[in-house]
Amino acid sequence: MQLFKIHVDLVKPHQDILQRIMASLEKSKVTIENNDILAVTSKVVSLSQGRLVKLSKIKPSAAAVKLSGEFNLDAEYVELILREADEVYGGTDQALCTVKDGVMIANAGVDRKNIPSGYAVLFPKGPHEVANTLRRKIHRLTGKFVGVIIVDSRVTPLRLGTVGVALGFAGFNPVLDCRGSKDLYGKPLQITRHCRVDDLAGAAHLLMGETIERVIAVLIRGAPIRISHNLMRPVRMDAVKVPPNRCLFINALSYVGKPKW
User: Fold this and answer.
1) How confident is the model at residue 261 (pLDDT cuts 50, 70, 90)?
2) Structure pTM?
3) For residue 25, which of 163, 141, 129, 189 has the smallest C-alpha distance?
4) Do residues 98 and 81 make contact, with C-beta atoms less than 8 angstroms apart?
5) In the chain, how many domains are there?
6) Environment class of residue 56 by beta-carbon count within 10 Å: exposed (0-12), middle (13-18) or buried (19+)?
7) 193 and 211 inside one domain
8) Residue 98, domain extent
9) 37 has which bridge partners?
10) Which phi-psi region, left, alpha or beta, contains residue 63 (left: φ > 0; alpha: ψ -120 to 50)?
11) For residue 70, what is the enclosing H or E element?
12) CATH number assigned to the domain comprising residue 57
């Protein structure tokens, strides 16, 4: 499997990110081929959608003020998190544990890293639809059938540091169902599924980094993935989702819903 970094200068709000990506590939003399997968950072998607918010314009609620003191966060920042989150489970120093669009992620994806001081960037709007749109545009430009992943980072239980996670995807089956397959000793698997889309997001995230890398996308070639040639039949986003009452972590910790702060 090969991974190609796609470097660009700083992305500004409302810029066409596909145009920037294609120009970078051309400069690097890398051409898109059938069955490639383009992984794009969620932050540049958010910037292209203009989802940049000036924190000084946010009026924090009483709940945000209370949580800001409890978890060592600015009240304006917490207010944005509360507005964006679907569920809030609590938190730790400088981070709230939240769910956004079916993904457990810190601070509802509201981020202040790698953007101008005094601003926050929100979770991308409709990442699954963005992935589908990019896939169709790439086909129109190149005639190639590719997969697309919108990549963010998150932390995982009892592990230090961030890993990649797919917020949206298009063009391939994200999960391989291994149930019924036999292991090395002939025993049938009972519950195992392989979330290949998050594995690919993790590989891309390794090159994207978290600081000054300026790698807004990664072209993945040779992945053991079958890319669909049907542009009009998008993969359902819920193909990777697990309801809270079936989630190992939330269910084990006695899921009780969104607290009334």
Assistant:
1) low
2) 0.93
3) 141
4) yes
5) 2
6) exposed
7) yes
8) 53-117
9) 147, 220
10) alpha
11) helix 62-71
12) 3.90.1660.10
